[in-house]
Amino acid sequence: MVEAVLELKNLSVGYDEPLISNINLEVFPGEVITILGPSGIGKTTLVRTIAGLIRPLSGSFDLNVERRGGLGYIPQRLGLVRHATVAHNVSLGARTRVGFSLNMWKERSQRTMDALRMLGIADKSNEPVRRLSGGQQRRVATARTLAQRPQLMLADEFLGELDHSNVEIVFEAVQNLVDDGTAVIMIEHHDDNAQLFATRIWEIQDGKIADISIKEWKNRKTGGEEE
Ligand SMILES: Nc1ncnc2c1ncn2[C@@H]1O[C@H](COP(=O)(O)OP(=O)(O)OP(=O)(O)O)[C@@H](O)[C@H]1O
Ligand SMILES: [Mg+2]
Predict the structure, then answer these.
(1) Relative to the alpha carbon of 54, which ligand is closest?
(2) What is d(CA 203, CA 211) in angstroms, rounded to the nearest whole number?
(3) How far is 58 from 61, CA to CA, in rounded Å?
(4) What is the pTM of this model?
(5) Interval 77-117: pLDDT, tens
(6) Where along the chain do the CATH 3.40.50.300 domains lie?
(7) Measured between alpha carbons, how far apart are the two ends of the chain, in Å?
(8) Pocket flag, ligand 1, residue 45 (CB < 6 Å)
(9) 19 lines ligand 1 (CB under 6 A)
Protein backbone atom coordinates (compact mmCIF):
# COMPACT_ATOMS: atom_id res chain seq x y z
CA MET A 1 0.00 0.00 0.00
CA VAL A 2 1.29 3.45 -0.90
CA GLU A 3 1.67 5.72 2.08
CA ALA A 4 0.29 9.27 2.06
CA VAL A 5 2.98 11.97 2.02
CA LEU A 6 0.62 14.24 3.90
CA GLU A 7 -2.34 13.54 6.12
CA LEU A 8 -4.45 16.38 7.53
CA LYS A 9 -6.31 15.22 10.63
CA ASN A 10 -9.16 17.42 11.76
CA LEU A 11 -6.84 20.33 11.10
CA SER A 12 -7.98 23.92 11.69
CA VAL A 13 -5.78 26.80 10.54
CA GLY A 14 -5.87 30.53 11.17
CA TYR A 15 -4.61 33.10 13.64
CA ASP A 16 -6.93 34.07 16.49
CA GLU A 17 -10.03 32.72 14.78
CA PRO A 18 -9.96 29.73 12.40
CA LEU A 19 -9.91 30.57 8.69
CA ILE A 20 -10.40 26.95 7.56
CA SER A 21 -11.75 24.30 9.96
CA ASN A 22 -11.72 20.52 10.43
CA ILE A 23 -9.79 19.53 7.34
CA ASN A 24 -9.47 15.76 6.82
CA LEU A 25 -7.52 15.06 3.65
CA GLU A 26 -4.66 12.90 2.38
CA VAL A 27 -2.13 13.54 -0.37
CA PHE A 28 -0.34 10.68 -2.12
CA PRO A 29 2.90 10.55 -4.16
CA GLY A 30 2.48 11.91 -7.69
CA GLU A 31 -0.69 13.87 -6.94
CA VAL A 32 -0.97 17.51 -7.94
CA ILE A 33 -3.41 19.52 -5.84
CA THR A 34 -4.43 23.02 -6.80
CA ILE A 35 -5.88 25.23 -4.07
CA LEU A 36 -8.41 27.75 -5.35
CA GLY A 37 -10.35 30.40 -3.46
CA PRO A 38 -10.79 34.15 -3.17
CA SER A 39 -8.14 36.50 -1.81
CA GLY A 40 -7.87 36.52 1.98
CA ILE A 41 -9.67 33.17 2.48
CA GLY A 42 -6.61 31.45 4.01
CA LYS A 43 -4.77 29.68 1.16
CA THR A 44 -1.33 30.96 2.15
CA THR A 45 -2.10 30.32 5.82
CA LEU A 46 -2.91 26.65 5.08
CA VAL A 47 0.25 26.12 3.05
CA ARG A 48 2.43 27.90 5.61
CA THR A 49 0.91 25.71 8.31
CA ILE A 50 1.84 22.57 6.36
CA ALA A 51 5.33 24.03 5.86
CA GLY A 52 5.63 24.24 9.65
CA LEU A 53 5.73 28.04 9.77
CA ILE A 54 2.40 28.54 11.56
CA ARG A 55 1.07 26.44 14.44
CA PRO A 56 -2.25 24.64 13.78
CA LEU A 57 -5.16 26.10 15.79
CA SER A 58 -6.40 22.56 16.44
CA GLY A 59 -6.08 19.09 14.98
CA SER A 60 -2.80 17.94 13.45
CA PHE A 61 -1.08 16.70 10.32
CA ASP A 62 1.40 13.94 9.50
CA LEU A 63 4.17 14.71 7.09
CA ASN A 64 5.73 11.57 5.68
CA VAL A 65 8.87 12.97 4.12
CA GLU A 66 12.58 12.87 4.83
CA ARG A 67 13.59 15.33 7.48
CA ARG A 68 16.27 16.86 5.31
CA GLY A 69 15.07 18.29 2.00
CA GLY A 70 11.90 16.22 1.77
CA LEU A 71 9.67 19.29 1.87
CA GLY A 72 10.07 22.04 -0.73
CA TYR A 73 8.37 25.40 -0.31
CA ILE A 74 8.12 28.26 -2.78
CA PRO A 75 6.67 31.20 -0.83
CA GLN A 76 4.35 33.83 -2.28
CA ARG A 77 7.18 36.31 -1.67
CA LEU A 78 9.95 34.29 -3.14
CA GLY A 79 12.55 34.31 -0.37
CA LEU A 80 15.55 34.57 -2.70
CA VAL A 81 18.92 35.99 -1.71
CA ARG A 82 18.67 39.05 -3.91
CA HIS A 83 22.30 40.15 -3.95
CA ALA A 84 23.59 36.64 -4.70
CA THR A 85 23.76 35.14 -8.18
CA VAL A 86 21.07 33.00 -9.78
CA ALA A 87 23.37 29.95 -9.63
CA HIS A 88 24.09 30.47 -5.95
CA ASN A 89 20.37 30.68 -5.09
CA VAL A 90 19.60 27.49 -7.00
CA SER A 91 22.54 25.63 -5.45
CA LEU A 92 21.10 26.37 -2.00
CA GLY A 93 18.27 24.01 -2.93
CA ALA A 94 20.61 21.39 -4.38
CA ARG A 95 22.55 21.26 -1.12
CA THR A 96 19.85 19.89 1.14
CA ARG A 97 19.56 16.23 0.27
CA VAL A 98 23.11 15.41 -0.66
CA GLY A 99 25.16 13.80 2.11
CA PHE A 100 28.85 14.25 2.71
CA SER A 101 30.91 12.44 0.15
CA LEU A 102 33.58 13.08 -2.43
CA ASN A 103 30.83 13.33 -5.01
CA MET A 104 28.88 15.93 -3.05
CA TRP A 105 30.07 18.95 -5.01
CA LYS A 106 29.76 17.24 -8.34
CA GLU A 107 26.20 16.15 -7.59
CA ARG A 108 25.26 19.55 -6.26
CA SER A 109 26.52 21.47 -9.27
CA GLN A 110 24.95 18.92 -11.62
CA ARG A 111 21.54 19.36 -10.00
CA THR A 112 21.95 23.12 -10.07
CA MET A 113 22.82 23.17 -13.77
CA ASP A 114 20.01 20.76 -14.65
CA ALA A 115 17.45 22.94 -12.89
CA LEU A 116 18.76 26.16 -14.43
CA ARG A 117 18.64 24.62 -17.87
CA MET A 118 15.15 23.15 -17.42
CA LEU A 119 13.78 26.55 -16.46
CA GLY A 120 15.55 28.43 -19.22
CA ILE A 121 17.65 30.65 -16.98
CA ALA A 122 21.08 29.06 -17.50
CA ASP A 123 22.25 32.16 -19.35
CA LYS A 124 21.45 34.23 -16.25
CA SER A 125 23.33 32.03 -13.82
CA ASN A 126 25.99 34.61 -12.94
CA GLU A 127 23.60 37.58 -12.64
CA PRO A 128 22.56 38.80 -9.21
CA VAL A 129 18.90 37.95 -8.66
CA ARG A 130 17.90 41.57 -8.02
CA ARG A 131 18.65 42.39 -11.67
CA LEU A 132 16.09 39.85 -12.95
CA SER A 133 12.48 40.51 -13.89
CA GLY A 134 9.62 39.29 -11.68
CA GLY A 135 8.93 36.29 -13.91
CA GLN A 136 12.59 35.36 -14.08
CA GLN A 137 12.86 35.53 -10.29
CA ARG A 138 9.89 33.14 -10.01
CA ARG A 139 11.72 30.71 -12.23
CA VAL A 140 14.82 30.97 -10.02
CA ALA A 141 12.69 30.10 -6.96
CA THR A 142 11.21 27.14 -8.82
CA ALA A 143 14.66 25.98 -9.97
CA ARG A 144 15.88 26.10 -6.37
CA THR A 145 13.08 23.78 -5.30
CA LEU A 146 13.54 21.47 -8.32
CA ALA A 147 17.23 21.12 -7.47
CA GLN A 148 16.12 19.98 -4.03
CA ARG A 149 13.98 17.15 -5.47
CA PRO A 150 11.50 17.21 -2.57
CA GLN A 151 8.90 14.53 -1.89
CA LEU A 152 6.26 17.20 -1.27
CA MET A 153 6.42 20.56 -3.01
CA LEU A 154 4.34 23.50 -1.77
CA ALA A 155 4.06 26.39 -4.22
CA ASP A 156 2.27 29.64 -3.41
CA GLU A 157 1.35 31.27 -6.74
CA PHE A 158 4.59 30.29 -8.42
CA LEU A 159 3.06 30.77 -11.85
CA GLY A 160 2.24 34.43 -11.19
CA GLU A 161 3.88 36.87 -13.62
CA LEU A 162 4.72 34.11 -16.07
CA ASP A 163 3.56 34.32 -19.67
CA HIS A 164 2.09 31.31 -21.44
CA SER A 165 5.34 29.88 -22.80
CA ASN A 166 7.04 30.18 -19.41
CA VAL A 167 4.11 28.51 -17.68
CA GLU A 168 4.71 25.56 -20.02
CA ILE A 169 8.43 25.50 -19.24
CA VAL A 170 7.70 25.40 -15.51
CA PHE A 171 5.01 22.73 -15.93
CA GLU A 172 7.32 20.48 -17.87
CA ALA A 173 10.05 20.81 -15.24
CA VAL A 174 7.67 20.12 -12.36
CA GLN A 175 6.02 17.26 -14.26
CA ASN A 176 9.43 15.54 -14.35
CA LEU A 177 9.48 15.59 -10.55
CA VAL A 178 5.87 14.42 -10.33
CA ASP A 179 6.64 11.50 -12.65
CA ASP A 180 9.27 10.46 -10.09
CA GLY A 181 6.64 10.55 -7.33
CA THR A 182 6.82 14.09 -5.95
CA ALA A 183 3.45 15.36 -4.73
CA VAL A 184 2.63 19.02 -5.37
CA ILE A 185 0.26 21.38 -3.58
CA MET A 186 0.00 24.66 -5.42
CA ILE A 187 -2.04 27.80 -4.94
CA GLU A 188 -3.25 29.27 -8.19
CA HIS A 189 -5.52 32.15 -9.14
CA HIS A 190 -6.12 31.29 -12.77
CA ASP A 191 -8.51 28.41 -13.45
CA ASP A 192 -6.81 27.68 -16.76
CA ASN A 193 -3.42 27.09 -15.16
CA ALA A 194 -5.01 25.14 -12.34
CA GLN A 195 -6.65 22.53 -14.52
CA LEU A 196 -3.75 22.17 -16.95
CA PHE A 197 -1.79 20.38 -14.33
CA ALA A 198 -3.85 19.33 -11.33
CA THR A 199 -5.19 15.89 -10.47
CA ARG A 200 -7.43 17.36 -7.76
CA ILE A 201 -8.76 20.78 -6.78
CA TRP A 202 -9.19 21.94 -3.20
CA GLU A 203 -11.74 24.72 -3.38
CA ILE A 204 -11.91 26.82 -0.23
CA GLN A 205 -15.27 28.33 0.58
CA ASP A 206 -16.85 29.52 3.82
CA GLY A 207 -14.10 28.10 6.00
CA LYS A 208 -14.23 24.59 4.46
CA ILE A 209 -12.37 22.72 1.74
CA ALA A 210 -14.18 20.89 -1.03
CA ASP A 211 -11.94 18.14 -2.48
CA ILE A 212 -12.84 17.81 -6.16
CA SER A 213 -11.37 15.45 -8.76
CA ILE A 214 -10.13 17.17 -11.90
CA LYS A 215 -12.67 15.27 -13.99
CA GLU A 216 -15.54 16.52 -11.87
CA TRP A 217 -14.07 20.03 -11.94
CA LYS A 218 -13.86 20.14 -15.71
CA ASN A 219 -17.38 18.76 -16.03
CA ARG A 220 -18.61 21.47 -13.77
CA LYS A 221 -16.87 24.15 -15.86
CA THR A 222 -18.43 22.96 -19.07
CA GLY A 223 -21.77 22.33 -17.39
CA GLY A 224 -21.32 18.62 -18.11
CA GLU A 225 -21.88 19.14 -21.80
CA GLU A 226 -18.81 17.08 -22.76
CA GLU A 227 -20.14 13.97 -21.05
N1 LIG B 1 0.45 36.92 10.39
C2 LIG B 1 -0.88 37.15 10.41
N3 LIG B 1 -1.52 37.44 11.55
C4 LIG B 1 -2.85 37.65 11.58
N5 LIG B 1 -3.65 37.57 10.49
C6 LIG B 1 -3.06 37.27 9.32
C7 LIG B 1 -1.65 37.05 9.21
N8 LIG B 1 -1.37 36.76 7.91
C9 LIG B 1 -2.55 36.81 7.25
N10 LIG B 1 -3.56 37.13 8.09
C11 LIG B 1 -4.99 37.25 7.71
O12 LIG B 1 -5.48 35.95 7.40
C13 LIG B 1 -6.37 36.02 6.28
C14 LIG B 1 -5.94 35.03 5.24
O15 LIG B 1 -4.68 35.38 4.70
P16 LIG B 1 -3.94 34.48 3.62
O17 LIG B 1 -2.64 35.15 3.33
O18 LIG B 1 -3.89 33.08 4.09
O19 LIG B 1 -4.95 34.60 2.39
P20 LIG B 1 -4.84 34.04 0.89
O21 LIG B 1 -6.03 33.18 0.65
O22 LIG B 1 -3.49 33.45 0.66
O23 LIG B 1 -5.00 35.39 0.03
P24 LIG B 1 -4.28 35.85 -1.35
O25 LIG B 1 -5.00 35.14 -2.46
O26 LIG B 1 -4.55 37.33 -1.38
O27 LIG B 1 -2.83 35.55 -1.26
C28 LIG B 1 -6.37 37.47 5.83
O29 LIG B 1 -7.53 38.08 6.32
C30 LIG B 1 -5.14 38.07 6.45
O31 LIG B 1 -5.34 39.42 6.76
MG1 LIG C 1 -1.86 34.00 -0.50
Answers:
(1) 1
(2) 7
(3) 10
(4) 0.89
(5) 878 888 889 998 888 888 765 555 667 777 888 888 999 99
(6) 1-65+151-227
(7) 32
(8) yes
(9) yes
